Amino acid sequence: MHGAEQSAAATDPLLAAMTAELRRSQQGLRVPGNPRPYYLRYALRRERELLIEAAHGSLLRRRDKLRGRLEVEVRVGSHEFDNVFDGGLDGDQSERESADWLLAPDDLEPMALRCALWKLTQMKFDEALEDYYDHRKAMVAEYLRDEVASFTREQATRHLEALDDSPLPIERWSQELVELSRRLLDHPEIHDPTLSIRGERIHRWLVDTEGSLVRTSDLWLEFEVRGFVLTDDGVYVEAARAWPARTLDEMLDAAAMARLFDEVVAELHELREADSPGSFIGPALLSGQAASTMFHEALGHRVEGNRLGARGETRTFARMLGERILPPGLHVFDDPTLTEHRGHSLWGSYRIDDEGVPAQRAELVRDGLLVGFLRNRTPLPDQSSPGRGGEPPKPERSNGHGRSAGVERPMARMGNLIVESEASHDQDQAALERELIELARASGRRHAALIHRVRAGETATDSYDFQVFKGELAHVELLDVETGARRRVRDLELIGTPLSALQRIVSFGGEPGVDHGHCYAESGSVPVGGAAPAIVLSEVELQQASRTGFHEPLLPPPFADDGSGGRTGRLRERGRRRRRR
Fold this sequence. Notes:
Layout: H1 3-11, H2 13-28, E1 37-55, E2 58-76, H3 110-141, E3 158-160, H4 170-181, E4 191-208, E5 213-230, E6 236-245, H5 254-273, E7 280-286, H6 288-298, E8 330-334, E9 340-341, E10 344-345, E11 362-366, E12 369-370, E13 402-403, E14 411-412, E15 416-421, H7 429-442, E16 447-459, E17 469-480, E18 486-489, E19 492-496, H8 498-503, E20 505-521, E21 524-544, H9 570-580
Parallel strand pairs: 3-5, 7-16, 15-21
Antiparallel strand pairs: 1-2, 1-4, 4-5, 5-6, 7-21, 8-11, 8-15, 9-10, 11-12, 13-14, 16-17, 17-18, 17-19, 19-21, 20-21
Helix pairs in contact: 1-2, 2-3
Pfam families: PmbA_TldD_3rd
GO molecular function: metallopeptidase activity
Keywords: Hydrolase, Protease
């Protein structure tokens, strides 16, 4: 053990135990005639998950779970050729035998921790040897035209944070949610409502054979109000508001929670009156929050570096470095080191990624031109050729975007995807709406779309699927370009193909919108943030969302039953009066 490692281990018995077992494994894992491990990484996550839910004056759930989970990465062979190929996207680690041995001992007793690592390391070593020979076989059986080296060389990282174990105000939050949820007793028309607070605190320890020693502490919190109403045509429509926070001080007080509650109730009443146009095609103005989701799905996933060399991926932007993919004046970067954007906390912030590399700002688009990719320790195919003018190629480096939820192998993922516009190209909201109307008139369309919020998005990047993305619209209006009237509509989804959608951006500006959530991909679910200005697209397609029909419940909720006979009772009469107005 080196001097710096000894110093860190002396103050943290878990790092000492992990480092001792790591060195023992590095020296002892030998099978004659087979490649030896050249790199090992151990990580331990101590995860505390909190869920509080309330409705109708009742505490529905209060769950406070604590668990420890292990990660072991074993690479056999060399940095140039090892057991990982297809950008690490080739195998489902959760389906392997080793996935049954990821739990750490609850008390984190050092020797018990070493025993758990010993067992898991042996299994990972066996799997790594199998994968190594599968990689060799693929080299013989196929022409892997995008094959590159296997693993980058990085400097050892030493980063030790104090572990925050300050108690969460669970009792107070529970009382506040229960009290606020009593107001739902005045709204029998709202179905399946919940008020919730979710929290996740992760303490992480990481060591590897390159000398990295990492200890980090993170907290994510979210307050949410959610509910549904049933429309006349039998569709349950949803409204929700969420408030993200990274510290206790950022969480809302009871009065602010109540204001979000009122917003959801008002929106649900508005949605009951909204109609469903079935579909729409024409120009659209997307708010910053909606635009952020579109950039995440249409651009962000397609600049994740691991996808550029995987056989099953379409590699949309792999050959487009230096080419224009966005209008002049737009810049895109991903920066996990940012903790806030214009006063709003960013959900995707971290200091060290899950491969032990410091987080860094990754420049992706500059003035509309593609200039880079999100990178972990998997080299990129386009970086293997010599530089211009006969210059030697630059050494491969990660930009600190290797992320994993703890089971699958880390891959390059988004952290905080930020879209910025130059002031010389910016337009304010009024100018954007004027251009929207002009576009609709020029194309002979009566309506344009105003997309204020997107609830969720998804995309496909593999070569087997169609290259599309989809956004579930939470708030959309149709603007009559002749009269200026705005009409709330529902049951619509934004769909598009990535290249064509990005090329249809004609103007942008206004106040940036900030987004947050959990992103699901091959390496699991990770928290992400984003920000973008409003954008005008010359044409979008909105498709009909699922319209499964339901009838009203035969009986009203017990708290609203006046004994008048189910569907003709107070619940239905209240709905009729509201709809008539």
